[in-house]
UniProtKB/TrEMBL annotation:
Residues 344-354 have a biased composition (Low complexity). It comes from Hydrogenoanaerobacterium saccharovorans. Residues 355-365 have a biased composition (Polar residues). This is ATP-dependent Clp protease, protease subunit. One of its GO terms (cellular component) is endopeptidase Clp complex. One of its GO terms (biological process) is protein quality control for misfolded or incompletely synthesized proteins. GO terms for molecular function: ATP-dependent peptidase activity; ATPase binding; serine-type endopeptidase activity. SUPFAM superfamilies: ClpP/crotonase.
């Protein structure tokens, strides 16, 4: 490097940090808050080698406390951290300070003891792979096989910790299973509940603040709403819509700490955007139903149509079946009434005397005589 030139070496990026406690006889900590990044893990700035060096620099310690509050991230980085922690001779105590979802749960499995608060969140699902570009069928098959191998490696870690059968683990992952703290302990993924609870706030439908760490929940569209309601025990005013901003802090806490939403207004207050979306979808479905009924309605069946539209709502297909049944009923009544009218009129007893008094040769009907002439009986 020429004299006088300053180093332009890029400062290393971390999605983890090691922290030695200032207190004596306290175990060092590995902090994993936020996303487990992928672009930096395998890049030039941060490598598995650097993580290993920092882990080794802790020295010969009896215990390492791993604190996790993460919505997940790169599965390869998570697997690498898991392996290095499992290889370390120290006791690994994992404390989930909020969330351990997706790839973050892989790291958690390295713990000899795993603790989670009662309103914490633990989620497992199948690994996913982003694809950009154009690929042949065989290339997609290869990617699919890679995903199977990745999933099996995750299954192995879960099965080792929980003692569950691999097939059961695979099924739990396939359905994207969410647990609160107690459920995670009951399922065997965690060992015990932490005494303290986590502070959770929801800023909007896609951003969750868990112990001051922002988590993008839009990545998890299948997250149960009931789970959000259970974990939000210390909700800030940003959790509520403008109609509740004038409530006192005590009123808001009373409402959110009461985990059972009992009325529609309660639901609207806590989840205004979600309830609006549900209402809009319902209105659209109802307009479509009415339009379909009107398009297939027939004249003369107004009572059936009006009942179906407003009094006892049913689909257009059901209305069509009702109209067909009524038509069949009306047709049967018409035929029965017609037969009765014929019988009452005695028309069946009237003989055909229209040719009476018309005579021809041998008093035959003139038409018969003409036929006999053309076609005589005997020649």
């Amino acid at each position: 490097m020429p004299a006088g030139q300053k180093s332009t070496q890029t400062k290393n990026k971390h999605f983890w940090s090691f922290r030695n406690s200032a207190e004596k006889n306290t175990s060092p900590e590995l902090i994993l808050y936020g996303d487990i990044a992928s672009e930096t893990w395998w890049g030039d700035e941060v490598t598995p080698k650097q993580f290993t060096e920092e882990l080794t620099a802790l020295g010969n310690v009896d215990e390492i406390v791993v604190r996790i509050n993460s919505g997940g991230g790169d599965v390869f980085a998570a697997n690498a951290i898991y392996t290095r922690l499992k290889d370390n001779p120290a006791k690994i105590t994992v404390k989930i300070d909020g969330w351990a979802a997706s790839a973050a749960t892989i790291v958690a499995m390295a713990g000899d003891t795993i603790e989670i608060p009662g309103n914490g969140v633990f989620m497992v699902h199948d690994p996913k792979m982003g694809v950009l570009g154009y690929f042949s069928e065989s290339e997609f098959v290869k990617l699919s096989e890679e995903l199977k191998v990745i999933k099996q490696s995750i299954v192995n870690g879960y099965a080792l910790k929980t003692g569950k059968d691999e097939a059961e683990i695979a099924a739990i992952m396939a359905t994207e299973t969410w647990y609160d703290g107690k459920q995670a302990v009951d399922a065997g993924f965690c060992d015990k509940l932490m005494f303290e609870e986590i502070e959770t706030a929801i800023e909007n439908t896609s951003k969750l603040i868990v112990n001051s760490v922002p988590l993008d929940i839009s990545r998890f569209p299948d997250m149960p709403i009931s789970l959000i309601n259970r974990i939000a025990t210390h909700t800030q005013s940003s959790f509520l819509n403008t109609s509740t901003q004038n409530q006192t802090k005590e009123e808001r806490e009373n409402m959110t700490e009461n985990k059972d939403i009992k009325t529609v207004n309660d639901l609207k207050a806590v989840y205004p955007e979600l309830t609006k979306q549900v209402a809009d979808n319902a209105a659209l479905a109802e307009r479509t139903r009415i339009k379909d009924i009107e398009e297939m309605a027939l004249d003369g069946f107004d009572s059936i149509v009006n009942v179906a539209k407003f009094e006892k709502p049913v689909a257009a297909a059901d209305v069509a079946m009702q109209i067909v049944a009524e038509q069949k009923k009306q047709g049967g009544s018409y035929l029965a009434n017609r037969e009765k009218d014929v019988e009452n009129s005695n028309v069946n007893k009237v003989e055909n005397n229209s040719q009476e008094g018309v005579s021809g040769k041998n008093d035959n009907n003139p038409f018969d005589a003409a036929i006999d002439k053309v076609f005589p009986i005997a020649k």
